[in-house]
Amino acid sequence: MASDSGGTPPGPPPGVRILVVGGGYVGMYTALRLQRKLKQRLRSGEAEITVVTPDPYMTYQPFLPEAAAGSISPRHVVVPLRRVLAHCTIVVGEARRIDHTKRTATVTTLATAEDGTGAVEIPYDELVLAPGSVSRTLPVPGLAEHGVGFKTIEEAIGLRNHVIEQMDIASATRDPAIRDAALTFVFVGGGYAGVEALAELEDMARYTARYYHNIKAEDLKWILVEATGRILPEVGESMGRYAVRELRGRNIDVRLDTRLESCEDRIAVLSDGSRFPTRTLVWTAGVKPAPLLAHTGLPLNERGRLVCTARLTVEGTEHAWAAGDAAAVPDLTASEPGRETAPNAQHAVRQAKVLADNLVAAIDGRPLKEYRHSYAGSVASLGLHKGVAHVYGRRLKGYPAWLMHRTYHLSRVPTFNRKARVLAEWTLAGLFKREIVSLGSLEHPRAEFEIAAGRHPRPDDGDCQ
């Protein structure tokens, strides 16, 4: 132990333990940069990085709509954390509680229920909270039973399989009511997730319809429900209006200033009095911070996000850091005071870099930097060769915006390996026809074996779940 009598301040304690909670944008990019910055210390044992994440991969969410449409293979939308973070310890599990006074995190893993030993406690010296967000649902009757979100790769691929299966049902049924419900697809939420998912899937389904002898593209009914008076607010009002015209020009029913009142009995009831029997209800009406934040004892704002400083530290708390969807970070570039950075990927990736640099600086006793980034703009896809963009004050639409959307996200997807694979798939997709196969049986892989063994599996009720 260092003596206080000397003039040299004590250095960082050996074996600094860094715990990163979350393996999304902020979690992965922070751990990746820490891994590079602390390379020698990780090798010598002077530092260790543990990443707790519910999934062993990071999902590049902007590619989910293209994965749902079959333009990209699901495995190329995710980044395996064990490969990218080779010098970190990856714990696949859920952080249930943080006791920052004791510097411990209570975590349940895949083995928790199997071995009966209960949750494990992971000690740390520095905490990075990046658990992200979850779907923000409302108490709409029937939503929990019949709705599906669009935040994970599993939901995206399940939705693709489901849409094609509904076309199979509509093609084979003799009941007009079942056919109509099967070919009606309702999306709630006019942000990026809802608009891009609907646009890509409608594009895919319209192409797929040509291979059915009794289904035409105009038989499919696509409905977008948005509670406000505009969609895609990030791209600006004029581009939002263009997106509405583009979607309506494709016979998509866009309902603005409208809410979903109920979806019981597979009937979507809207606030304007409309009723649509449907077997597909996709809920993309916003997100909320991960529930873990309520069990940390750290300061939260009125929306449940961690109150942070511009240095990406948790307000009034030492050795705690946060960024991304879970953090309320002041926007130093905003013209009016009190504004926070938007919870999107553009800020998350840049915040992760500053956070990692500041954490290393704190360990070394150096001053911290403030996060400052002017919002560059937004791009959105409206299906193959169609899009809108508002970047650095310039507005683009149609093919140029779609090309910018692909170019930007190709540049941002992590690792050269993923970039090359995605580019190769786009190239092949331009040379060959779309794949129109549903692999819904992947969701019930034991069904056929159970039938062969004399046991009847639970029948699929047809809901998109």
Automatic annotation (TrEMBL):
Q: What is its EC number?
A: 1.6.5.-
The similarity comment for this entry is:
Belongs to the NADH dehydrogenase family.
- Entry-linked Pfam families: Pyr_redox_2
Q: Name one GO molecular function term.
A: oxidoreductase activity
Q: What is this protein called?
A: NAD(P)/FAD-dependent oxidoreductase
- The enzyme's first-digit EC class, named in words, is oxidoreductase
Per UniProt, which keywords does this protein have?
FAD, Flavoprotein, NAD, Oxidoreductase
Question: Could you tell me which residue ranges the FAD/NAD(P)-binding domain spans?
Answer: 17-351
